[in-house]
Amino acid sequence: MAAIEIIDYGMGNLRSVQKGLAQVGVPADVTRDAATIERAAGVVLPGVGAFGACMDNLREYGLVDVVRRVVERGTPFLGICLGLQLLFEESEEFGPVQGLGLLRGRCVRLRERPDDPEYRIPHMGWNQISKRQPTAALAGIDDGASVYFVHSYYVEPRDPALIATVTDYGGEFVSSITRDTLFACQFHPEKSQRIGLQVLANFGALALGTSAASAATA
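Predicted structure:
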């Protein structure tokens, strides 16, 4: 039976994501086996670290093509933090560095604001998301809900129709994107308590055809 697979490319908060999914009744395995990822019911690409290093690891483990295939085929897909950024064409972090190129656009650094002593990079802590369009991943989550961020870069999609939510931090940035069965977020669901668990439950329901949403809000 196909399962949800969390891609292990040597970087990222893999076990935290796995535990978060388990908490809402969604079983998931951690793997770097391409054939297993290929037949998954749903795929999670987490990420913590530098954009270029993550792309290097995906190439080293032979995972670039399989990630492209599962996204293009429409397998339910969840990208988290760097797992969002990698979907785009390039990042300016130590670059430009080429990404997976599945979505048009680039990843850029949060802009410095020396006139504001409260503004710091990285953006770390709780902040609100403002919805721009409905998506199954955010079902049951109110506009303005707070989630947890840790990042210095964000994505600039060329197609505004991809934008699911925006967040204000020294200006508005894209905090999640959606397309069909793909959802990717700059925030960390596994660190975002009840709201984050709801995102994971919604993804599990989409991938497995079951409803785990009650576990997130119980």
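Summary: The helical segments are 14-23, 34-38, 51-60, 64-73, 82-85, 193-208, 213-217.
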